[in-house]
Amino acid sequence: GFRAAGSGEEAVFGGERVSEGIEFTKLRLSVDELRQIPPPQLAAFAVSCYAINELNTMNRIYLCAENQQKLGEAAQIAELNQRLVLARIINAKLFEFSEFAMLKGKYNRTQNKTLKDLASAALEGFEELKGIPGYQLAKTIRNEATNHYQLSPAAKSLEHLDRGANCDIFIHRLDGNSLFPLGEELIFGAGLHRAGKELLVLEGTALKSWLEWGLKAMEWTKEVHMRLFEEAILPHISPRTTERFIENIPDGLFQSPEM
Questions:
Q1: Axis crossing angle, helix 39-64 with helix 73-101, rounded to the nearest 10
Q2: How many angstroms separate the CA atoms of 26 and 245, rounded?
Q3: Largest alpha-carbon pair distance within the chain?
Q4: Which of 24, 130, 236, 241 lies 20 to 30 Å from 189, alpha-carbon distance?
Q5: Are 158 and 242 in contact (CB under 8 A)?
Q6: d(CA 231, CA 64)
Q7: What is the dihedral of CA 28, 43, 93, 199, to 10 degrees?
Q8: Could you give the CA distance from residue 141 to residue 92 in angstroms, rounded to a whole number?
Q9: Distant-in-sequence, close-in-space partners of 48: CB < 8 Å, separation ≥ 6
């Protein structure tokens, strides 16, 4: 098994903030020993690592983007835009991960029994996610407000645009600082309201349902990732002791337990 040196805890991944910095647990792996693993299983684990890295990175940025200071109008809009953009990208990535985990699509085909068994288990877990309020909203947001810029959904959302929506334009000499809140108000805000009404979601709960579904889906991705490691990788590498170390990290790079 894998046990953290100097402790009785079993730990493979993770980090905990301590007073001197961030404490990590590291498991050393070499390319030579990983090459002893069946190629489809190693490739699948690498894809999973890639996806989890992306999701964790965007989650850290999302959490660090929250500003506790009192902000002016333009700064409030910029902060909200940043967090919503990140939330939508995370949402889309969760669906992309589900396609991979369940071996859907021509690029995920394999005859490897271990991976097919894992895909069946992943499918079972994702079917449960489909039954959680917020799934259909998440799917609509992924299809209409994340990876595509589409005229038809925007036109449908016009009647749902709030009369108090911010339609002002904020121009700055640096283009990246300019703000156009109408886009967020119509495509996401009104679009979410329209989708919620179409799906019979209670008034005012659409955003909450969507975000809560995303948290559940994130938990599912971590479970899939760890099960892939435990069943496709772990049996092929020799037992060893993990290492613990503390590293000082600049603020904003890793989340703290208080966030």
A1: 160
A2: 8
A3: 64
A4: 130
A5: no
A6: 34
A7: -120
A8: 8
A9: 100, 101, 224, 225, 228, 229
